[in-house]
From TrEMBL:
Keyword Methyltransferase: yes
Organism: Novosphingobium organovorum
Keywords tagged on the record: Methyltransferase, S-adenosyl-L-methionine, Transferase
Pfam families: Methyltrans_SAM
Protein's recorded name: Class I SAM-dependent methyltransferase
Length: 295
C-alpha cells in the first residue's frame, strides 16, 4: 500500500549555463535565456527586487484578463524564429511565445533530474509524457527507453520533433502523438498498456485537436485514474505538476492517495521553485504530487 507523506517537499531548480532567474519582485521576474534577458509577470514575487533597474531584451505585458492575454514589448531585436539553448544533452529552441513563456518550462529541470533518478540503470523503460509540449522532458526521458509523447497541439509536437533533431536525438525511441491527452490515456487503458513512468503537466484550461474541452478541476480525477491503470507494482513513478490554480499540493496528493492505495511506494507533494542566481531567494512556480516506487 502506498504511503502518503504529509510533509511537503520543495524541489528547487538551480540556474545553469543557458538559464537563470536573475531577480524578482513586485509581481515580475527577470530571467536569462542564453545571452538574452526577459521580464515576465510573476504574481508570487511579492517582495522587492534586489536591483532597481532591470536591463532586458523584452518584457511580456499581461492583458487585463488574469486568465490570459497580453503582448511582448521588445527593447532589442529578438529572433522571432527562436534561438538554441541546452539542458544537459538536450538541445532545444527558445522563443517568445504569445502565451508569455519561452517554449519550455525551466522550473521543470529538477523534475527531469528526479525522473532520471527513478529510472537509473534502465535503458528499456516505457514512459509517457502527457501534455508533452515541446518535448524537453520527453528527450530527457528517452535516455532510458521508449517514450510516448502526447500533445493536442500539432505545432507543439512539430517543435518537439525539431528539438529532437537539434539535439541530435532524432533516433531516440519516441512515439510522437498529436491527440487529446485524456482520450489517449483512456484508449491506452482499453488496450491493456502499461508504463514504467508517467509525467503529466496539464493546463488549467485547454482544447483537444477535435475541439475537446479540458478543465483541470473537472477532468483531472478521471485522467489520473486512467494513469493509475497504466501503472503496476513494477512501475517506477508518476509525476503531476499544476500551475496557476487555487488548490494545494496536499489536495493533489489526497487524490493520488485514493487512486494508488493498492500499489507499493510513496506519495509526496510540495512546491516547485527556482533559486535566484545571486540573492538565493526561492521563487515558487507550481505545485506537484508524485508517486514513486524505487526498485
Amino acid at each position: 500500500m502506498a504511503t502518503l507523506s504529509t510533509s511537503p517537499v520543495l524541489m528547487v531548480g538551480e540556474g545553469w549555463e543557458d538559464y537563470g532567474l536573475v531577480d524578482s519582485g513586485h509581481g515580475r521576474k527577470l530571467e536569462r535565456y542564453g545571452n538574452r534577458r526577459f521580464v515576465r509577470p510573476e504574481p508570487q514575487a511579492m517582495w522587492t527586487p534586489k536591483s532597481e533597474q532591470w536591463d532586458a531584451d523584452g518584457e511580456f505585458i499581461p492583458g487585463s484578463d488574469e486568465d490570459g492575454g497580453g503582448k511582448w514589448v521588445f527593447d532589442r531585436e529578438v529572433p522571432r524564429e527562436g534561438w538554441p539553448l541546452a539542458w544537459n544533452e538536450v538541445s532545444f529552441t527558445a522563443s517568445c511565445t504569445p502565451f508569455r513563456h519561452l517554449g519550455f518550462f525551466p522550473d521543470m529541470a529538477p523534475v527531469w533530474d528526479w525522473m532520471r533518478g527513478q529510472l537509473a540503470g534502465r535503458s528499456d523503460a516505457e514512459t509517457m509524457n502527457l501534455f508533452g509540449y515541446t518535448g524537453v522532458g520527453t528527450l530527457a526521458l528517452s535516455a532510458h527507453g521508449r517514450v510516448t509523447h502526447v500533445d493536442a497541439s500539432k505545432k507543439s509536437v512539430a517543435q518537439a520533433r525539431e528539438n529532437a533533431a537539434l539535439a541530435g536525438l532524432e533516433d531516440r525511441p519516441v512515439r510522437w502523438m498529436i491527440d487529446d491527452a485524456a482520450k489517449f490515456a483512456a484508449r491506452e487503458v482499453r488496450r491493456g498498456r502499461r508504463y514504467d513512468g508517467i509525467i503529466l503537466d496539464p493546463p488549467k484550461f485547454g482544447r483537444g485537436p477535435g475541439g475537446e474541452t479540458w478543465r483541470l478541476e473537472e477532468n483531472l480525477p478521471a485522467l489520473l485514474a486512467d494513469c493509475r491503470q497504466l501503472l503496476d507494482a513494477d512501475s517506477r513513478f508518476l509525476f503531476l505538476t499544476v500551475y496557476a490554480v487555487r488548490m494545494s499540493s496536499l489536495a493533489l496528493a489526497g487524490l493520488m492517495d485514493e487512486l494508488f492505495a493498492d500499489l507499493p511506494g510513496t506519495i509526496e507533494h510540495g512546491d516547485l521553485a527556482v533559486r535566484e542566481d545571486a540573492a538565493g531567494r526561492l521563487l515558487p512556480t507550481a505545485i506537484f504530487a508524485r508517486w514513486s516506487n524505487p526498485a
